[in-house]
Amino acid sequence: MSESLSANGSADEVDETETAPDIDAATADGEPVTAERGAATADGDADRYTFDDLSVVMGTYNEEEAIGTVLDDIERVTNGRAEVVCVDGSSDRTPEIARERGATVIEQEPQGYGVAVREAVLTPDRPVVVTTDCDDTYPMDRLPDFLDAVNDGADVVSGDRLYHGAESMPAFNRFGNQAFAALASLLMGERVHDTTTGMRAYRREVVQDIGWTENTGLSAELLIRPLMRGYDVREAPIEYAERLGETKLDPIEGGAAIAKSIVTVCLEEQLRRF
Ligand SMILES: Nc1nc2c(ncn2[C@@H]2O[C@H](COP(=O)(O)OP(=O)(O)OP(=O)(O)O)[C@@H](O)[C@H]2O)c(=O)[nH]1
Ligand SMILES: [Mg+2]
Hints:
With 274 residues, this protein is an alpha/beta fold. It has helices spanning 67-77, 94-100, 113-122, 143-151, 171-188, 204-209, 218-228, 251-272; strands spanning 54-60, 83-88, 104-107, 128-131, 156-160, 200-203, 233-237. The chain is globular, with a radius of gyration of 17 Å.
């Protein structure tokens, strides 16, 4: 039942030493993806996805302080092979910096996190999609581990920031994120540890096959619906760094919207089972 992802592994090896509670698929009446695996790899293993099969996607809203670092990290870790998609609503230099680094930039009026990220996850043609925030908080060095987990059969790999303590997160946010995870776990009947993380890998079919409704609460929705439909969803502990640049989320208003999304989505998914 439990599998672990390494802290610093590569796409070809998974370190089994770190144990963390990962999530396996709920079984009820879901339709887990039967994997159609990716293109042949350089070493001839036709069954495994490689960085050539990976899109890293993000909403970007006035992130000129961070975007260079985030995109450089993706380039370094994937040897420039991952596609990068930014759905951008910025009025600063963010889109120029993204284009300079070869990212695909989709312009969109700023309408909130979920509107941008929904467009971002639905855009790629590649079979594995990883989301991140464009604020240098998430460890792009872990992309190989996330890809390993998908190759190992996961449909969704969700970065759990709270496992290692998330000390760089403001205390109010940390408490809120623990409360969201507790609430979602209670309503789903399945323990999850971080429902609002921005770093996840998805098989493309998962994001294409489910209809998404939430905005600020999209991150929670992207975890809850696949889990409650029986997909193989696993949490992977990740480090979480202090943000570069200004937050785009109001903690009180955003927190209320996320709590509402969790309750709504869990109830909808429970009703869907009848
Ligand atoms: N295009 C677009 N991107 C957005 C919008 N709102 C947020 N984003 C991006 O979505 C990502 C998440 O926003 P953050 O401000 O980091 O929200 P958060 O992670 O909850 O809060 P932090 O603790 O500040 O990191 C960032 O990359 C933002 O630039 C929006 O309206 N449009
Ligand atoms: Mg963020």
